[in-house]
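Lay summary. Proteins are chains of building blocks that fold into shapes, and those shapes determine what they do. In this project we predict the shape from the chain. Here is one chain we studied, written as its sequence of building blocks.
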Amino acid sequence: MKLSGVKGMNDVLPAEVGRWQEMEALAREVFALYGYREIRTPVVEPAALFARGVGEATDIVNKEMYVFEDKGDDRLALRPEGTAGTVRAFIEHGAYVDGPQKWFYLGAMFRRERPQRGRYRQFHQIGCEAFGVAEPLLDAEQIALLADYLGRLGVRTTLKLNSVGDGECRPAYLADLRSYLDGHRAALCADCRDRIDRNPLRVLDCKVASCQPVLEAAPRLLDRLCAGCRDHLAAVRAGLDALGVEHRLEPRLVRGLDYYVRTAFEFTSDALGAQAAVAGGGRYDRLVETLGGPPTPGIGFALGAERLALILEAMGRPVPPRGPAVFFVLADPAGATEALRLAGALRRAGVACDLDARAGKLKTQFRQAERAGARFALVLGAAEVASGEGKLKDLATRAETPVRLDELAARLGGPG
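And here is the predicted shape, written in a compact code that computers can read:
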């Protein structure tokens, strides 16, 4: 019986993985410039963590989480997002005693939703979380970090910014919004009608065309912000201006998770048409306390690696080469022995190389070299071994250049 992978959980093959390695390496490089350090948390967490942290009224917890009981009857979940687990680790290990913390993560998340291009049941996120600072300048700095990262990848984006209020101004707004939406229930789609009572803010994020007239006329939270939230938003915008980060206010921008307060932001791109969202995040000043830690402000974001990889592909950005510097083509047994010796020396010098131990026809080996993505091929046989010299063949231009075998490491970029 032929076995296939689980629907919506995809393989990333060697020909594609170079793009992922580029995204991940650049994330580590850029995030370090802003003082963020990597954390790695388990993919399995207590299901209660997400019910309390993400919110029982959210679609993630209600409809999309992979939940199961292990042999000890513990109710567990595959993590659907990265923030709750990072906060759990922050609390469990007492990291709050060391003052403000800046952490980042890279890893797989799981949601059982309908798979579509750029949205899968196993997907990968790159995210940052900062704890212990409530000041709006941190919001601006973290948003600038994300703009910096995307800019270095060459991704053109639009930054949308909003405030989702806080415990002082949001409750009254939600009551007004719920009342307004309830009065227009018949004009809304089934999902929106379901969300009116559970999570009315999420209705504002609906993309169904028939709902748009109702949503356009809905009350705006921006018009109901308390003085503290207004001042916070103004300071975030001033910080972004000082950092040269262009942005626009988007009154209907909300985040799908219950823990967000005040700052909410999203980066979008038109590279994939309707699939515009690239990354998003916001402030969550009560989440640490909600999950059992001391009162600690926080802010974070996540970007979808699959979506970002598709955008880079649509832009025509080439996958960074990951093939060996040289592929040895074995002409005879003497050449095979010398290739093995040279390969060992080159690898010790930090030069990637490869060979096909089966040898065989030279034409076949050259094809293998091209499939491996090698920059050069070098034929080795008894004649080359005796003379101590061979010819490097550039597989892109087909040009051949003589080279001393004992100088091969220096020629290919090693220390010699």
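What the prediction tells us: The chain has two domains: 14-169+225-314, 326-411.
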